[in-house]
Design goal:
Length: about 325
């Protein structure tokens, strides 16, 4: 019984040389699979002395009981099909490992993906060489997902599900997505002239980005905003267009940094307690809504950005 020589030889050569798989691994896998196929076809003949052996010169496969050849007539077709399936499976395994290895080196970077299906909870994206999952917890709240929509996502992690299947997890809510998008849009960040010191985010609502440059004459905020706001608008559009981005200048003076962090509000005064890390910030009553923000988002982000608990105190403009 002989597996078609040309098919066997070509397939084995392809697996070994083009796909980088060990010939020994392929041969042993085929022999094990052929023996399993024999057990399935002839369950009454199962015993511990059975072995499948492949002739490496011509691809001939036989079943032995000890040293006795007991290969049934007509078993060649089953063996050939089994060998083909094993080789194809090995090819798929290597391709999968290659793809996963490729994306393992891209964790923390951004890619553009196209939604290929959405089950109402998870979105599945084609990201080029593989499929990625955008879980519910990594989606921007109130963002609409449907097939063929194109999105910029951050490759967050690669892990295995409960069935042992490897998954590429991507995110729309990770703060690193903001950093990577600005790196793409702002050459001064990409070349190190401008440094991103901190990013805090309430996905879909607001982001605060603190930037700094040690080089004289460089305006880090202006570089990120761009002419007529083009650069920051491009990033905003990639986030769905609803998320406001406040770009502020980082400062090692906590008073100046806090004042900038609470933008767009203008503050009257600030009292700091370095031990408790509490900042008492006084604002005019007309500025209070801006300082606090809708649902407290502005003051909460400013607090996270500066690592101070911020207590907003309102005063009437007529008070002296």
């Amino acid at each position: 019984m002989t597996i078609l020589k040309s098919e066997f030889t070509l397939a084995l050569n392809q697996v070994a040389t083009e796909r980088g798989i060990s010939i020994e691994d392929v041969i042993s896998s085929i022999e094990a699979a052929v023996l399993a196929a024999y057990h399935k076809e002839y369950p009454e003949k199962i015993n511990d002395d059975l072995k499948a052996k492949i002739n490496r010169e011509n691809g001939e496969t036989k079943i032995f009981e000890g040293t006795k050849d007991i290969t049934p007539p007509g078993f060649g077709r089953i063996a050939a099909q089994t060998a083909k399936q094993v080789i194809l499976q090995k090819i798929r395994e290597v391709e999968k490992k290659t793809v996963i290895s490729h994306y393992m080196g891209q964790i923390g970077s951004v890619v553009r993906g196209r939604i290929i299906r959405y089950d109402g909870y998870n979105a599945f994206l084609d990201i080029g060489k593989a499929e990625a999952i955008l879980p519910k917890e990594e989606q921007i709240r109130n963002e609409h997902y449907e097939v063929n929509i194109s999105l910029m996502v951050l490759i967050k992690e690669i892990n295995d599900d409960k069935f042992g299947n490897t998954r590429i997890i991507v995110s729309r809510t990770d703060s690193r997505l903001i950093e990577e998008l600005f790196k793409r849009e702002v050459p001064e960040i990409a070349n190190g002239t401008v440094e991103i010191k901190a990013v805090v985010r309430s996905p879909g609502e607001r982001t605060k980005l603190a930037v700094y440059s040690s080089q004289g004459g460089v305006d880090p905020v202006g570089a990120c905003v761009g002419q007529k706001g083009l650069r920051v608008q491009t990033v905003t559009d990639e986030l769905g267009g609803m998320e406001k981005i406040d770009i502020i200048q980082w400062n090692d003076d906590p008073l100046l940094y806090l004042a900038a962090a609470l933008s767009p509000a203008k503050i009257t005064s600030t009292e700091l307690n370095e031990k408790t890390k509490i900042a008492k910030v006084t604002v005019d009553e007309k500025q209070a809504p801006l300082a606090i923000g809708k649902g407290g988002v502005n003051v909460n982000l400013a607090s996270r950005l500066t690592n101070y608990t911020i207590d907003i105190v309102q005063i009437n403009a007529n008070e002296t």
